[in-house]
Amino acid sequence: MNDMRIAERTVSTNTAKITARGVQVYYGENHALKDVDIDILSGTVTAFIGPSGCGKSTFLRCLNRMNDTVASARVLGEIKLDGEDIYDKRVDPVTLRARVGMVFQKPNPFPKSIYDNVAYGPKIHGLTRNKTELDEVVETSLRKAALWNEVKDRLTAPGTGLSGGQQQRLCIARAIATSPEVLLMDEPCSALDPIATAQVEELIDELRSQFSVVIVTHSMQQAARVSQRTAFFHLGNLVEYGETGQIFTNPRDPRTESYITGRIG
Amino acid sequence: MTDASQHAAAPKSLLVADSRTRSRKAAEMRFRLYGMMAVGVGLLALVFLLTSVLGNGLGAFRQTFVQIPITLDEKVLDKSGTRDPAVMKKVTTIGYGKLVQKAIEDELAAKGIDTQGLKSKEIMGLLSKEAPADLRDRVLADPGLIGQTIAFDAYATSRVDGYFKGRVTLETAERDSNISPEQLKVAQAMADAGMIETRLNLAFLTASDASELRPEAAGLGVAILGSAYMMLIVLVLSLPIGVATSIYLEELAPKNKWTDMIEVNIANLAAVPSIVYGILALALFINFMGLPQSAPVVGGLVLTLMTLPTIIIATRAALKAVPPSIRDAALGVGASKMQSIFHHVLPLAMPGILTGTILGLARALGESAPLLLIGMVAFVKDFPAAPPEGLMQPATALPVQVYQWTQRADPAFVERASGAIIVLLLFLLTMNAVAIVLRRRFERRW
């Protein structure tokens, strides 16, 4: 929570989990994302910042091929997960999404019980052999999402009955139940109050040890608080990408500086 | 700008409405009044419909019976004494008619009722022409009755029935060639002596149709069964086809000019007059495919065609109403398109789909025009068998039965037709109630 921490962060020497080269995205005629090159590191929280419509959410949705559901979207270029091209014809987006989980802007639990919400992913991917294993996965996922203590006595209650912050943590639990390697978060705190936001941010920091987390955020304070690396998008271009401390204290590009100081955006 | 400054210069009191506010308020009041008037007109029409239907039709559920003890004489009914059904069937309703006639005359004499000089034929005229046939059916079903004296409840003829329900009076009988005031006086004396009784008649719901001359024996059995068979076919065919079509168009199909055109055409089909479907069914199912006329299977198929657009439109609306965030959530954890539809979207759309389906079925149940064209307007006396064979056998349908009965001369059929309308309305009311209950039951918030 302390903005002063950013300067103290150590440089990570983690390996690249996702490498993107020359990524272009078109929505019909609209060229939404232009020539993005980025390496997303493992065990790191990477924040995407930038003004509305700059393409940061679009790029995030390319990483687990959620853009496939938009009929007019076309993705060109190369995105590799552990060296494998995720846009290869042989890749089934379903298996990709089990490895690259996603948490959305608005908490969207299924209108089912808390247990079923978390158990759904493992069930459809056949990750568990019996009920005991499934129970275990549900418990660990809820624990990792820091929700277990609050809901352990009412796992059969509907997930939609939880508070907004709890719902979002339930969605995080649901996303990590399939043991993904990368967790994508699209403005996960924008619908939450400050206390719930703090809880989710704390959680993100803990998740870093097991997943690479990519978070899109509108709040520069949030990016500074939770991320080790930050990418600044503007008008469909990736303007600057680097260590969070460096981006916020010593940006190289004048556009980044203008955005951070509040002159554009 | 000058305007604004004038307003600012002369602030008005909040307590006094200016002319503009007053006229806006008056317009609002007028609009409210129009609305209330419209609702009032609608309610009046409903009240009028219900009173006229109930007033005319409730009588159909009650029936006047003449109670006579009949001695089933073996010499008349089974001369050989073998109780062989084939032999017994040789005794026609004429033979039974004589028995009935003797029994009623004996009973009148025993009760000391003045027959006002009526001839035997006129006394028999108090009873329905169905009475001897009823008796015959009863004896053939249970030959053990022969030789005994049984209590027989014969239908009174429609005019006598009408007399006890207030439809026929001594004055109208004067002008009526089917009944005379003397006959009615005898009937009244019989009622006083306890021989005639008007009571609940469930046979109206279970019996089959009867001929022009015996409205008292006509029932809705075949029509209810025929309608039920058709609804079964409509449900079994239109729900899966309609839901599959909607899912494909809404969730899977690419959005291009072809799907646009299909969409427009489905919307248009929903507005096609139902009789057009009848012509289609006549040409396609009967003339081309050679399915039997008057059969519930053809009726069911044509009603399916008619109901499909309604179901598709309702289902697509229900699918559209499911928030996209639920689809995203399912896809986000790695569900396939089909899994996201069947595990999440469809259950959430279910109340809307069921409501649309039931309303479509209700519309199909009340439809008569296309059935007229495929021959379901025939006079059907025999009950169709149980499905599946029964689906190919002739039957009628409730709305067609109403139409048929209103065409007949005897005023007793007006009562029957109104009674059938009551039954039809009850079915529709039940279906709508089920739709509401289902919607409430499955409704979920997200």
Write up this protein.
The complex is a heterodimer of chains A (265) and B (446). Chain A has 265 residues and is of the alpha/beta class. Chain A has one domain: 3-Layer(aba) Sandwich (Rossmann fold), CATH 3.40.50. Chain A is 35% helix and 25% strand. Chain A has helices spanning 56-63, 93-99, 114-125, 131-144, 148-151, 164-176, 194-207, 220-226, 244-249, 254-260; strands spanning 16-27, 30-41, 45-49, 73-81, 84-85, 100-103, 182-186, 212-216, 229-234, 237-243. Chain A is globular and about 55 Å long. The mean pLDDT of chain A is 87. With 446 residues, chain B is mainly alpha-helical. Chain B has two domains: 61-201, no CATH class; 221-442, Orthogonal Bundle (MetI-like fold), CATH 1.10.3720. Chain B is 65% helix and 5% strand. Chain B has a three-stranded antiparallel sheet. The longest helix of chain B is centred in the N-terminal third of the chain and has 39 residues, at 19-57. Chain B starts with a helix and ends with a helix. At the A-B interface, helix 2, strand 6, helix 3 and helix 6 of A face helix 16 and helix 17 of B.
